[in-house]
Request: fold
Amino acid sequence: MLENIFPQIQSLTPSLVLTLGLAIGLQHAFEPDHVAAVSTQVARQKNKSQSMKKRIQEGTFKSSIIGAFWGAGHTTTLIMVGLAVYLLSINIPDVFFNGSEFIVGLMLIFLAFSTISNKKLFKIKHMHSHTHKDGIIHTHPHHHNGEHKHGHKSYLIGCIHGLAGSGTLLVVIAGTLSNIQDVLGFILIFGVGSVIGMTLMSSLIGIPFALSNKAFSFEKTLRYVVGSVSFLIGIMIIYEIVFVGKLFSF
Reply:
């Protein structure tokens, strides 16, 4: 789809270029690897509300936040790469983007195992500081419990996705525009579209998990399904990049 835009994009008016960026961003959020990555994060959410209505509301809200963080990370990377290509005239080789796609495949496999096992494969300690009565500031590591959640993981996953796939092709398309305002406008509106699309998609994904919160067997089945799909997509990406794209051929 994006490849067909190259010949026509410079002939479009600025408003049509921005509209196009928004539409592509919305569509981009629903690519299988993106859906799989966010689904693994949604599957790890816990909901303590008792009533079904509150579980759905809380579940969709938490899931939408995950999607929004993913979209923000994705947009951050695209802006950085777009500026590097346009302002610094950096020629980024295809092997870099293919390598990034390979990393995405590995990441999806990693997320699959952590989702199916429902455990953190790596225990990460976060450093927190507090001030004593005598004014001494003390910093110590802290393992977060279920009440202490961060969006940095979804943001990081979005950043990695921003380096791979059709997101990188978007940067090349933006590089064909005539000025920096058009380039940034196109990438930003694309980012807004991907944030909106991913927020909507992830909130919908959160509904079945919210409903299954009180039925352990159903919740476990959903985790297995999400993990298995993420694993398969990761394997397919790696196969496509390594064997079809010959990433490691010299």
